[in-house]
């Protein structure tokens, strides 16, 4: 049994995740080698190294933990409550960073509850809509109830205010809803309801949403050099870094823009540092690795016959894809800046741990799919052998 379990793991996915995370650790060290925070040059590297070790332990645990157990009320309810409590506690003991009340300090570390809320939304919506498959097109019974939790999470994140993360959570949830099997009529009704809810909220919070600083981001991203000393400062220096790298880059550690010119070089703009130092080859490695993870997740979702596993894979893949696009798009001027980290690569403990949990779940779903396929493709003339009811994702469980 152990050999069958080991052979069922998706090693290509595991290797890409490991390589991308280690590459990110190296680039965090390079990007923060000269810091302006009054800390040692290896400060962020040492913290990220610890984050990566913790993430590896979490990843292994979640890769072995049977994903089907997560749709149990005993796990689902505490997870939902913990995510809501974490977001509410921010307004009591939260720490402001990046003009948003997004962090809770725990000793020497900071936790960002909204990062874990993303994953909580994915697991919750996947579990609930999987259970509602038999009546998914009954609007009041099958469609609306799960959206109450989604609305609460988005609202609590938006009032921090962190509209970028709230938007990401909403987009991730939308991909799960669109993939849940509900008909077009209900999808259109949902769109109308969202519009009717969001429009009045936008009017009530217009001073926050359309603040001078946020509007400056919208107007400056198309031409950052028109106000390079102020609103276009971040993007202009990102352009300088990307343009300086060319095809081969200046060499690892040889970047200039990170020397106090490019803000948040080790977090939001780490792709600019990669481009400057490693050129198109470094950027290509990151983009292709992220694309592989997203496409692999979609393929797992298509192969998975369990609605819960399929929706989990879709949600996790969309989270990686959406967040990557927003980070890369912001750093290259395709879309306005939102302050989103690049998955697996940027510095950040909460982001890395959340990604480790998500990837562990995805690997577990993939393993279960491969294990199931091995029992399906039996030799001709051989009596079909159903997959053992007592085995799920690497653990023996009660039937």
TrEMBL record:
Record bears the keyword Transmembrane helix:
yes
Task: Please state what class of enzyme this protein is.
Answer: transferase
TM spans (from-to): 12-30, 50-68, 75-93, 147-174, 186-205, 278-299, 311-335, 347-369
Record's PROSITE patterns? FTSW_RODA_SPOVE
Could you tell me the Gene Ontology terms of the biological process aspect for this record? cell division; peptidoglycan biosynthetic process; regulation of cell shape
- Name the PANTHER family on file: CELL CYCLE PROTEIN, PEPTIDOGLYCAN GLYCOSYLTRANSFERASE FTSW-RELATED
UniProt name for this protein: Probable peptidoglycan glycosyltransferase FtsW
